[in-house]
Amino acid sequence: MHPLSLAERGLAAPAVSLSGLLSGRRPPLSGGSEANLADYAHEIARSGFPGIRQLDPVLRTDLLDCYIDRAVDHDIGESGASIRNRLALRRWLAAYAAATATAASLTVVRKAAATDSAERPSPPTATAYQRALEQIWLIESLPAWLPTRNRLRRLAAAPKHHLTDPALALRCLGLDATALLDGRSTDHPVPRDGTLLGAMFESLATLSVRVYAHANRARTYHLRTHGGEHEIDLIVERSDGRVVALEVKLSATVKDRDTQHLAWLADQLGDELLDAAVITTGKEAYRRRDGTGVIPAALLTA
User: How far apart are CA 95 and CA 67, in angstroms?
Assistant: First the structure.
């Protein structure tokens, strides 16, 4: 089971369903949310673990840290994986967390895991780390969408990096909601577009959309062309291959430049694109004049 989605956390009364978007009818969108940027930052830090999120911040932080310690020190061994250097694994996991919501190569993650006193792990070792952490569901990368039924070409196949819950990524980096809102960065040199808060918000949206997609028997991906000319954060694919495209923006308002990749995809796919929307930190759900939906993250549900 995944951690709680935003709809399950009760920030607002959900008013927009992914099932409606997947229907292809492009229904009108409405509804309001009082959640603001600080609320989303605190939701990232609180986690989606029901037994942890309701506790006071100090105890919650301790338990999230213990969750990671338990996973690294015990669960990996119980899963059958053989990891000799636990400190190196922790450094690699922190570098991976710094790469949240990016498609950075594992070479970049390996470099970011090196310190003045420690060498970067070898490629086979880094691969072993990744497989072991996936096996115990501590990390859950988002695969690239590689369609077979349309004219799209030159799509990149690298996954986007995510931990199972963005709160775990935050704790791997030793940060909290205040650090996110203050714009504090990490000590790991992983290139990204935008802020760490933006990456963690995208990870929170990804967690939620995965839950909603699963409820609709759909699969979730991301899209990126080889040169990075076009990127779309979330592609939700029905069993017939038709899709809903979702961009995730940290801003409360949506401008034309925020929808340009969705417009490009609409030109490429035609009727195979069921719907398109931007997930935001805003207050109101609506459709733009071009038909693109604008959905506050707290309002989206299955």
Answer: 18
Q: What is the helix, strand, coil percentage profile of the chain, to 5?
A: 45, 15, 40
pLDDT digits (tens, 9 = 90+) for 88-107: 889 999 999 999 999 999 89
The closest of 84, 173, 164 to 124, measured between CA atoms, is 84
CA–CA separation, 135 and 20 (whole Å): 33
- At residue 79 the predicted structure's pLDDT band, cuts being 50, 70 and 90, is low
This prediction's pTM: 0.94
First vs last Cα of the chain: how many Å apart?
Answer: 15
**CB under 8 Å, gap of 24 or more: what pairs does 103-106 form?**
103/144, 103/156, 103/158, 103/159, 103/160, 103/161, 103/222, 103/224, 104/161, 104/190, 104/191, 104/192, 105/158, 106/130
137-169 residue pLDDT tens:
999 999 999 887 766 877 888 999 999 999 999
